[in-house]
Amino acid sequence: MFLKRLSQIELTICVLLLAAITGLVFVAAIMRFFAHPLTWSVDMAQLLFIWLCMLGACRAMREKSHLGMEVLVKYLPYMPRLWVEMFCAVLTLGFLGVLVVLGFQLAWMNRERTFGDSSLSYAWVTTAVPVGCALLAISLIYNMVKAWQGRGRGVLVYTRTAADKDAPEVLEL
Amino acid sequence: MALITVLFVVLMAIGMPVAFATGISGFIFFLTTPGMPMSIGVQKIATMSQSFPLLAVPFFVLAGHLMNESGITNRLLRISLLAVGWMSGGLAQVAIVLSTLMGGVSGSAVADAAMEARILGPTMTAKGYGKGFSAAAIAVGSLITATIPPSIGLILYGYVGNVSIGRLFLAGVIPGLLMMAVLMATTYVIAKKRKYVVADAEKPTFKALAIAIWQAKWALLFPVALVLSIRGGVFTPSEVGAFAVVYALAVGFLAHRELTLEKVWKAFGHAASDVGLIMLIILMSGMVGFAVIYLQAPQQLATLMLNGITDPNIIVLVILLFLLVAGLALDSTVMVLLLTPIFVPIITQIGMDPVHFGILMMSIVTLGGMTWPSGSAMFAVCALMDVTIEEYSIESIPFIAAVCALIAVLVFLPQVVLWLPNMAFGH
What we know:
The complex is a heterodimer.
Chain A: H1 2-33, H2 39-62, H3 78-110, H4 123-126, H5 128-149
Helix pairs in contact in A: 1-2, 2-5, 3-5
Chain B: H1 2-13, H2 18-32, H3 39-49, H4 56-69, H5 72-84, H6 90-103, H7 109-119, H8 121-126, H9 131-141, H10 152-161, H11 165-171, H12 173-194, H13 206-215, H14 217-231, H15 237-255, H16 261-294, H17 297-305, H18 312-329, H19 332-349, H20 354-367, H21 376-385, H22 389-412, H23 414-425
Helix pairs in contact in B: 1-2, 2-16, 3-16, 4-15, 4-16, 5-6, 5-13, 6-7, 6-9, 6-12, 7-9, 7-21, 9-21, 9-22, 10-19, 10-20, 11-23, 12-22, 14-15, 16-19, 17-19, 18-19, 18-20, 19-20, 20-22
């Protein structure tokens, strides 16, 4: 299926980014230890990091791992709760939309500014925000559609319920 | 600031995911402040990620997942069983010791609590331990994970509050061990009174314990090596994080031979989601962070909260009490990100060491995860062990009281917390 393929590609990019960041910092630390510092290596790691954050956040969205406070809403019956989540989701979509527009404008303004000690444009960093927000919005819309289709089984938009059986563990600090 | 606060509280109350509640209320500042370009808001989101210390987060998250996949949990469990299984309340003691040992590998209390509820929970109930008691020992015990290095919470605190992460890591060691002792004593008393069976009646032979420790040497060595390499000052915590990932891979592939490429892939995938989830909150908090500084909120809140209080000890107690109450409702990551920049200037001004405060703050905000009404460790453990929140809450009272008492004592004994970091780094 097309969507599944897309999520696999996303996962592959995430894994590669994570591996690249680790490798870059590891090599930079070793080289610095032997008095051959590589400044571009850490700069590159920072640049990839924001992309990892955004893509990872997108995965976490589809896994419904982005936690909110459930103290009050958990007392709501299912349908009102779904509507509250739909309302929050629409609000979030609006917010993400604004960030996408502003983010692209900002990236356009940043294109001359270089990044760290490298000759790379800072726009590579800034662009991650609008692109990431757009992907988050798509994931959120996907969740909304799934929740609406699964409303007979008690599926929610961003909160995991008993209906999401094989969802992964929740992580917290 | 009032508008931001009200909006944040309302959004949180209707269950909006934390990252977006933080983001939207921060963005309102840019919408409502005349002459403040909205694009700065987006800029703040991007700049949050461009900090080298923050790279420690993905590294330690990934290293933790890799360690889990490489059979470390079983080895640490064996040590805990041998070492304390014979004591009164044996299995609960095992849970607490295991949390301490796991604390040296992973930086997340909830992940630790969930893991223990799955592997120890069923055995405990089968051996006649009260369900609520078992859940409470596991959930509150996982608090130790939050102070033993590497702790992701302490990395965030150090990053936001501009405090040395190396010092914070070292400062967490003794309080973590004290917490273990206090919780074990509490378990001992309760278990003795209720005549809970021991896990293994025979005291372990020295040889058996030594063998178990030897088999887990790579896992046990990890926090020690971590602290030593940061302490040397040669490498920064982020660089040590990258080493930790390589170390975890080496142990899994070469020493334990339990890691496969498939497991590595799984660990990377989990780590990517976890990093995204933590980092989205951090990125989105960039806007609120900017607003807080711009509006001079720390100064305002300080005058409001501490009006007329001059005794430094009382000020610290008031702040910690505030954290305790706020922690009931709020998630620990959000608290660290939003409140650290407010409180660190205040406590530095009255002459308290921010490293000392960081350990106290981390313990208290993480404790919020173990209590009614919104503790995520509580929910995880209760759901996995099928315990009601009410039963858990009653049984957890002695444990939480013991931890609070310890924290209160630590407020007045900064030398206990600061002894290790001062010895290693100088004053």
